[in-house]
From TrEMBL:
Pfam families: SpoVAC_SpoVAEB. Keywords: Membrane, Transmembrane, Transmembrane helix. The lineage of its organism: Bacteria, Bacillati, Bacillota, Bacilli, Bacillales. The chain crosses the membrane at residues 31-48, 55-75, 81-112. It comes from Collibacillus ludicampi. This is Stage V sporulation protein AE. InterPro entries: Spore_V_AE, SpoVA. NCBIfam families: spore_V_AE (TIGR02839). It comes from the Bacteria.
Length: 116
């Protein structure tokens, strides 16, 4: 049953993004920003973690989870280290994913050539 809910929730998040692009004049960058901020706001309200517990990867894989990670890390570290924790918490939680994206992008650029 968890697979069904992951599919439904992840699909709904993607559907919202696709509808925003199709029915408005928003660019993909604007839609991505809206989804990241939505994930951040939902985490700030305490609603995103229950969604992850309910839907698993359906809520933790889409881009909304990045906003969730930023706010979750900042809030966790702020409780421990105060104001400085807000800044360090953002980097602590997301640094592995960002580092991996940079490293794999660099490796891909060594293997493939850009067309144009």
């Amino acid at each position: 049953m968890i697979f069904l809910w992951a599919f439904v929730v992840g699909g709904l998040i993607c559907l919202i993004g696709q509808l925003l692009m199709d029915l408005t004049k928003l660019t993909p960058a604007h839609v991505m920003t809206i989804l990241v901020v939505s994930g951040a706001v939902l985490d700030g309200l305490g609603l995103y973690e229950p969604l992850i517990k309910f839907a698993g990867a359906g809520a933790s894989v889409p881009i909304t989870s990045f906003g969730n990670s930023l706010v979750h890390g900042a809030m966790t570290e702020a409780k421990t280290h105060g104001f400085v924790g807000i800044i360090t918490g953002i980097f602590e939680v997301t640094s592995a994913g960002i580092s991996a994206a940079i490293i794999f992008s660099f490796l891909a650029s060594l293997v493939f050539r850009a067309r144009g």
